[in-house]
Write a structure and sequence with these properties.
Blueprint lengths: L1 E6 L2 H6 L4 E4 L6 H11 L1 H4 L5 E4 L2 E2 L11 E5 L6
Parallel strand pairs: 1-5
Antiparallel strand pairs: 1-2, 3-4, 3-5
């Protein structure tokens, strides 16, 4: 399945880019995509947690992805 991956914050550094379309096989849900991302990007797996937004809406791990979805990778943020 082709997905446009758009990392924010530290995820952008970890994934080395602003966003790209990737062909990802064997991924159907956002939870499966998180597993794929953790295996593909070791430093991303070191984050305690990150969220995914699909087509500009936060989604739970059981959300079914569709061809050409835009997936935003949102790492934890801190601040005051």
């Amino acid at each position: 399945m082709k997905l446009r991956l758009v990392p924010f914050g530290i995820a952008r550094e970890i994934m080395d880019g602003d966003g790209e379309v990737k062909e990802i096989k064997g991924v159907r849900t956002t939870g499966e995509l998180k597993t794929y991302l953790n295996k593909t990007y070791d430093r991303l797996a070191q984050l305690k947690h990150f969220r995914l937004a699909v087509n500009e809406e936060y989604r739970d791990d059981d959300f079914i992805l569709s061809e050409d979805d835009e997936v935003i990778i949102i790492p934890p943020v801190s601040g005051g």
